[in-house]
Design goal:
There is one protein chain. With about 60 residues, this protein is an all-alpha fold. It has one domain (about 10-55): GMP Synthetase, Chain A, domain 3. About 35% of the residues lie in helices and about 0% in strands. It has helices spanning about 10-20, 45-55. It comes from Streptomyces kronopolitis. This is AMP-binding enzyme C-terminal domain-containing protein. It holds the Pfam family AMP-binding_C.
Amino acid sequence: MVRQRGARLSEDEVITYVAGQVAPYKKVRRVEFLDSVPRAATGKILRRELRARERSTTPR
């Protein structure tokens, strides 16, 4: 998730909001704030880069 400049939003606020909007099995368990989302030249989100980043930061 990318925050707008000057926004004061915490991980707990996002998790609580989403929990009230979606079915229980779709609840968000973890939120990570990024400076920017990786995108291809066409503007599509590069999910493979997000997955690679997740694998490199998650302890096994």
